[in-house]
Amino acid sequence: MGDKKTRIIAIANEKGGVGKTVTVVNLGAALCRGEKTVLVVDMDPQFNATRGLGVDIEDGMLTVYDLIKDNESIKAADVIVSTRWEGLDLIPSNVDLSGAKVELIDEVGRENRLKEALESIYGEYDFILLDTPPSLSLLTVNVLAYAKEVIVPCQTHPYAYAALDGLFDTIFAIRENINTDLSITGVVATLFDSRTRVSHNILEKLKNDERYADLLFDTVIRINTTIAESAGVGKPVVFYRKRSYGSSDYISLAKELLSHS
Ligand SMILES: Nc1ncnc2c1ncn2[C@@H]1O[C@H](COP(=O)(O)OP(=O)(O)O)[C@@H](O)[C@H]1O
Ligand SMILES: [Mg+2]
Known about the structure:
binds magnesium ion, 7 strands, alpha/beta, globular, binds adenosine-5'-diphosphate
């Protein structure tokens, strides 16, 4: 066990396409640029965070699936891989992870598998950021059972805004029943398009809604094609194009997160 005070943060939203994975990858990279050590845990079978960090799944490579399936013989250290950026490590995922949902169903204590598997690395990183799949599966519950904090990306779109309420209920239910240490650190508005009325409208709603106003990060993540482009080449935008909106937005989010400790 290292001596750092690790912040364990889930990036969660049951809706897909709201910027969870992009936030995990780029917030992680921005924290790393700010000299923090970061472990990204990819809990989505679609492994977009793994790809976004430029890690290829090779044959026989261990993934988070092996860790939660058989945590007796496989240790966290066996599944952690380095990315090409120092201080930014990854526990990769792959499609096998969808099998874990099924296989874990009848096992006792199944929601604590990830927590048990990662307990031993507490203190080794400044941040552990966990990406989640777009559904409330056992995989997501494993993440929320282990995390201490949640960051909720909310696309500046009416459906995403409307779905926040249900998501908060889910998080509160997990806090009540499984993980009393869990708290919501913030909501970050994503995919903001300043040219559209709808983006401005939803941002205003978030700012004026008493349920979310205090939790809303000042940083708004704008739509930026460089973000999608950087994902395509397996590089976080803060390393791919330092002078892009995408890069400056995620660097700003990282600074805010550091001030929220
Ligand atoms: N700020 C942004 N600007 C442009 N494209 C973005 C931005 N954030 C996310 N995207 C793109 O939107 C899609 C959904 O984002 P993603 O992070 O994969 O969402 P989720 O993980 O919530 O499903 C992806 O194609 C991603 O590249
Ligand atoms: Mg995703």
